[in-house]
Fold:
Amino acid sequence: MDVEDRDSASDVASDRSGPLGVHLSPDEDIGGDGPDEETFDDEEAALPPDLEWLEELYEDDDGDGNGDLAFAADSGKKRSYSATARMFKLRRNLDQLDCFHRQKEHDVLNAREELKLCRQNIKSLVEQRNDMEEEIERQKAADNSVVVFRLRAQHKHLCQKLQSEEELEGHINTELKQQELELIEVEVELGRFSLLRQEVQEEERVFQALKAEKAVTRMQQERKASQNLQRKMQHLRDKQAAMLKKEESGCQKEIEEGQVNRKIAAKYLKETIKRMHQQEAEKKQQNRELLEKRKQAVKSLKSNIAATQESLRVQQSRAKANAQKKEQQQRQLRESLQAQGINNTKHMYQQKQLDEIKRKQEEFEKRQKSKRVEIVAKILQEEQLVKRRKRHQALLPKPSATDKFPSLGMAREKLLYYLDPSPPLAREERDTIKLREFSNISSSSSSASSDVEDLEETMRPEVDHQSLAESLAEPEFSGLWEQNCKKLLNEKTMLGQTEVKQEEYATPSGNLNMPAKKVHGKELKGPPFTSKPDIILFKDFEVGKIYKKKIILTNISYITNHCKLLGVSAHLKDFISINFEPPGSLSTGMSCDMQAVFQPMINEDLEGEVQFASAVGPFSVPVRCTIKKCDLEVDSQFLDFGLHVVGQTISRTMTLTNKGALATHFSLDTSTCLSPETSQVQMPSQVFVNTYQQISGQNTTCDNQRSSASMGTDEPKQESQELFEALQQEQPVSEASATGPEALPEACVSTDVDAQTDQGHSDPGDIRLGNFREGEIGPFQSIKLEVLFTPTIPGEAELDFHIKFSDLTSKPIPIQVRAVAVSIPVWVVQPSLDLKICMFDRLYQDSIMVQSRASTALKLTFEVCLEMRKHMEIVPKTGFIQAQSSFNAQLKFLPRCSLSKDAKTFFDRDTGVLEVPMTVQVAGQVKPVHFTVQAVVTTSDLEFDRTEVDFGYCSIYQSVKSSVRLTNLSLLPQDFGFLGVPEFIEVQPNDGFGTLLPQETLQIDLIFSANKAKEYSFQLSCKSGINRDFRLSCRAVGVRPPLELSHSLVQFGATAVGDHSTAILYLINHQTNHIQSKQPIPPLVKDAVVPVAPRLFSFTLPKDSDISITPSAGGLLPGERCLVQVKFRPRLLEQEIKEEALRLLHRAKLLREKELERNRHAEQENKKEVPVETGKGKKAPVVPKNSNVSDGPQTEQPTESPNPADIQPGSEQYEEARASLLYSFTQRYSEFTIPCFVSDGNPPEEDRQAQPAWSPFNTLYLKLQCPAVQPPLVVISNNGHNIIDFHQVAVGEKVIKRLTVQNISKESLDLTSSVLDTHGPFSILNALRCIRPGENHTLVLAFSPSLEKKYCETLEVRSQKMTLEMTLCGEGVVPAVTCSHPGGLLDFGYVLEKESSSQVLKLQNSSAVAVGFRALLASLSPSRPQGGADKLAFLLGHYTDSQVQPTVGTQNYSGLSVFSAVPVEGSIAPGQSQDITVTFQPDHQSVNYSDRLTIELMNKSKVCVMDLKGAASSHNMYLYGGDLLTVPIESLLPALITSQPPLTAESEVMEKPTIPVLVTLRACYSAGAITPAVRELQVGCIRSIQPSKKSGEFQWDNVASLQQQGFSVEPSKGTVEAGHKRTINVTWNPHCGYKPYEVVQTCVPLTLKWDETNVYRVTLMALVSATAD
Structure:
């Protein structure tokens, strides 16, 4: 096979690749034939997955280095990898081609078998038909009409079956021919690839030979490797044998040595055992002696116990006798007192109280005497210590640095400071105690001094003799001065923060607020179930993925409970599904689980909750779904390099952290440096910079101690940043008043900075960023960013830059870098040490860090000024700092109350600000290092606004509340709590516990509830967080009224406006008649003094209240009780409704005035334009002027506001105002305290009409809590109306209306509805559900009338609180719609392929309602008829029979519908029309396009049915007519394209394929004459979208030859305009020599010319028939 044949074969293979499924590319076919052909490259040869082993084979081959597969067997040429891959690809394709050939052979055999079976069936049916015809003839002859009719029916059925079998035979025969054709094509392709098959076989043989050679080579290599391995193993075995021999010899030596050692050890062991036996014998002897002693002790103990029991019995008998004697004396005394008419109970109680007071007073005097003696002794001792200390301090040198700080108090603003409000005596005692503590600390510190040796030797004996118990310097809490206290305080601080955060998080957790319920006497607060986890969190989700989470619900209520799933939030229903099986009843502590499945579809944050119901009440579990976000932060936004020597290079790193799950790109943007003026202002602010360092980042021990001792909590970084910004803002204000850097206090700036202020600033370029300035930061990733500082000149350097991100939601992070270049060797890192706010008598510590850059070690001495040595100490006082290192010293600050006297220069008593200059003396350095210690010292006192609280008289059935104000005089927050509160008093808020902010005053409510009728006198103890005690004296008198209310507090439930709630209680007279007193005694503190008599009562109601009490007045005899009914009926007051109406009218009036004002402004602007026109010679129009004048009085006349009395109930304004109040009515809570006055008895017997005596001590009070709410369910659609009118609706149609109700209550409502008429037209299409507070629920109501009449029904929507009634009404109307097209055929004619043609249909609605319609195409119907063999009559002949159903003809290759109707559906308004555009748009040439269009109404009634037909041509000129040559059913597969040799330019026109057309003419022969046959052909020219003035031409060729055979064509040529058609008449008149039954046939070409020339090969076939069609 040559190259040309291979090309043709490859073309066929590529063309047939679609149906055959075999791909053979030209490169694969001819890739290896010659040197000029292209070969496969290594990169292009991509093996399929099933040939990946070949690549591994080549890799192994390359690794071995032999390259067996890379060389051919016969020649030494290298075999490429691509050639081998090509061989396998060809083999695979050839195998696929063989498999396809076998499949086609099998299909042909199956088709032949089916054809054979079909012909057998036809043969049998023909025989049956013949037999049936014979039988019919016989029955006709027998004149049996009944049998004849039956046989004819069977004959007809048999003929139909025969016809279907014949059609099936034709179909199978066609398929068989097609499959045989495909089989022949496959066999031809197999023949074309025979040479290629041989070539592949040859290559496979070579490849197998190479594989065999490779296997042999590998076998040899394996043998060599195994031999080498055996040699190695033998060598290893020899080596191991030698090692074993050596080990055996060593073991033998060890055994011999062990035997010798055992002999020696046995000797010593015997001696040890002997000694142990002796010791055991001695121990046994000692145990026996001890046992004897114990026995003697037990015997003596028994005798002692017996004697003790006897003495106890004697004492008990003596005590009983004394008690009986005492009781007898008390009984005699009580009888004597009763005989004298004195209250014996009161007298005895007072006597006991006096005895108890005397006893307590004696004990107090004893304790006071002993403590007075101790205090005097300690005072004398401390006076001696103070004298010794003064002598010691007189010998010390006085520092001269104190006079360098004249303006210490001007550094900060004045702080509010309250003087000590304690009385003088208490203050003096406290000062004395603090002085003693201070003197003790001073003595201990002075004893530790190493500077004065002689004083140390003198003071040491005096200090040593003091015991630990005598020392008065004690911490307020044990262990506070120990080193471990730091950790404990920090842990407490963190625990406190955790508890506070948990409380804060617990509030917005999303659970439903539930009222407290009591179960088995226990109060249940919160939800009945807890979930684990508390929040269902789907963090960092991705759209399209599915997330699952398991949740465990635990019953924490006190009862057996159940759990029911209600659903999820409405906006989460599309994304979250809950898998939950109700567990049934759960005991307390039992749990159940559920699964939440989250499938996100949108990339947004979602929040909601999962609702559940339980026996106690509903609860919910919050759901939170968050997308991937960028959460970027740096560990510090302020970098301070501190002080560094010029010439060094210092590096600082900051960490950029992305806590989010979304990556982003970052870059460092450097901004311009600060101006010199700003730098000069900020240079002395090193103090504030260092203060910010302490707050923000340095986690040192001193910070922890100071924060734990003062604040108790660690401030977050955000607060530190805010403090730094505030300091930076305050700094320019304070510095602006100074004349220059010299005016600043020297204590605020370090010595190093002062030395460099005149030398200028360091170049801002000294601070630069590292090389890594931009990059990508991934999710949960941290990146280190480097900042370098290389100072060149002394001074301060600054650099501000931003970290910017590509993520739009991430804001740039500003970074500030500060550094100072200095040239002195030793300096204090923090020139200003800020201790923040401190309290008196509290210890505070901090660390002082000294840095050295010297090359040698230096000696440091810390000096404290003389005034502060009683309050401040630095440990150690002297130390050595190594070269290039740091030194830490500990600062201890214990402020005493005498601070204002001792340090008047440094301490401001008014503001509490303390600024102490400190000095560090450096050996060899002339100028010392100065630093400043700053603090704000405040008191720790709490103060009550009064010293005594008198509650007065209080009924035992009521409570009395009195308020006191507690003030925190400190500048720090303080915790407080009332401890040891008696049971008859209650302290609120928070049960007497809380925190007072600085200078805050809190109102404390003291609620006194007397449990007995007596006098009360007690003290309340309020303790602060530092264990200080503040007392408050209280007194009260308890009384018992004669009547009692069963309930003194009535809490009505939330009652909607218009509803009512009722409470029932009892008024009881507990007195009886057997104890009476004739004389009325005033109500004191005893129960016996109240006289027993009938009582009158009267309830007094407030005016215009919603409360009614029945009965409001009456009388009660002793022992009786009366039922009292209290009703709460909330309502909208008429005055409120009228005021709301006036407000609405006023608002409408304002809107009208604004509109008129706008109109007036517009007219004024128009008036301003008038003079411009008059200046040109035109007159000013009069109309605007008149209109302006006329409008003036209308706007200036004030409209009188209507009178509220004019708004009558029932009017429009009244109803609007009432509705507005209902909708805006959220909640109204009112409390009423209703007094019930009780008389002292009946009126006097002398005058029954007189008023009885009423005592204020007998008055009862009934407290009513009345919450009123708006109706829980309201209609928010339909303008709030409850009447839904569907109006007129066409019969058979369905109209849907929606009614939205809103839950404006604060509880979930379970909605239910009444049952509508099941046979009526109204229905609810959606289910009613539980709606939560604030949610809406839309009721979808449908009205579908079946008759022409009016309908009306009532629908009730019920909830737990109310029932909402709605009226449904509507009317049914019969629709009337007509179409402009009567139906039938709608022919679009010929259209160019891929172009369209449209026709418009008009629908007219003549009914009184809107009517919906649909346009349905049979091709788009899922139930359209399949096949087309039984619908051929529609396409074969003219459309004359209306009963013939049209078929769905040829469809587009693209899958789009050929015919389309727009709009597909819609609604026609009453009396209006609607245009429907039907478009025909084919995409390939065919004459068999057809479809059926049905226009029907929504009630399924059809308006019209029309059959759509059209044809498409690829050329503008077309020929229509003739006989059908093909089946009208077309396949959607493109036609097979047979391979043809390429056409040249000269032969293209001559060899262009012609289009065959068959025209059959039948002449009619009748009565000896032949009527000529006439047929019509139509030549048309399609109007294209592109405009063209050219007309088409047509011409018949060889017309003369047609005439010889009797054919004539009129016209033989002509032109056709675009969009028109011309008819060609073809006539056949047989000539005289025509033979009967002879068919005359001829072929003549018809040429159609437009832009292209098309030739139709028209075959004329004529014959004579006795019957003409």
Q: What stands out?
A: Residues 609 and 622 are 4 Å apart (CA to CA).
